[in-house]
Design goal:
This protein is mainly alpha-helical and 177 residues long. It has one domain (2-176). The chain is built from 3 helices and no strands. It has helices at 2-40, 45-111, 119-176. The longest helix has 67 residues, at 45-111.
């Protein structure tokens, strides 16, 4: 299960990087085209440049938003997988506890000791197991919470990128008049 969580996280990072790179490429291509238009057609510059830059800005904003949404979604899925992994680990710990208690009872019975006298050993095994189960579940919840926070952060970062790109476009339009 740990391998699945790591694989999902790695794939999520790759997908987010690809979407972000596509947005950067669009923005760069738009700037290059805009520069080319204004260099070859000085009279057509302002309106053609504005349309071209606006189109590329919108595409860049869209890819930034998609990148944030992809990261958010992937982190949510990884968080669910982390919680399931923690529950699975707790169930394995509980199974081991039952096996240890059974082995202890067999050992007590084989040695001729009364089964009731092994209660302290059984209680100690159960106490340790309960602690380990609680720690496994808590660890899974903490990891899931961190993954969700990372996804929310990516979404907020994307919103900031969108706002910044839009503001830069508005500033460029204002400068051109």
């Amino acid at each position: 299960m740990e391998v699945a969580v790591a694989a999902m996280t790695a794939l999520g990072g790759a997908a987010t990087s690809a979407v972000t790179a596509a947005g950067s490429a669009l923005s760069t291509a738009g700037s290059a085209l805009a520069s080319g238009v204004s260099a070859f057609l000085p009279g057509a510059g302002s309106s053609a440049l504005s349309v071209l830059q606006g189109t590329m800005t919108a595409a860049s904003m869209l890819t930034a938003g998609l990148g944030g949404a992809v990261s958010y979604s992937e982190s949510r899925e990884a968080a669910k997988a982390s919680e399931l992994e923690a529950r699975d680990k707790a169930a394995r710990i509980r199974e081991e506890e039952l096996q240890k208690i059974g082995a202890a009872r067999v050992a007590f019975a084989a040695s001729g000791v009364q089964l009731g006298s092994g209660a302290q050993v059984e209680n100690a095994i159960a106490r340790d197991s309960e602690y380990e189960q609680a720690m496994a579940i808590r660890s899974g919840r903490i990891n899931a919470r961190q993954l969700r926070m990372r996804g929310s952060g990516a979404l907020l970062r994307a919103a900031g990128d969108i706002a910044s790109t839009g503001a830069n476009y508005a500033i460029d339009l204002r400068r051109r008049g």
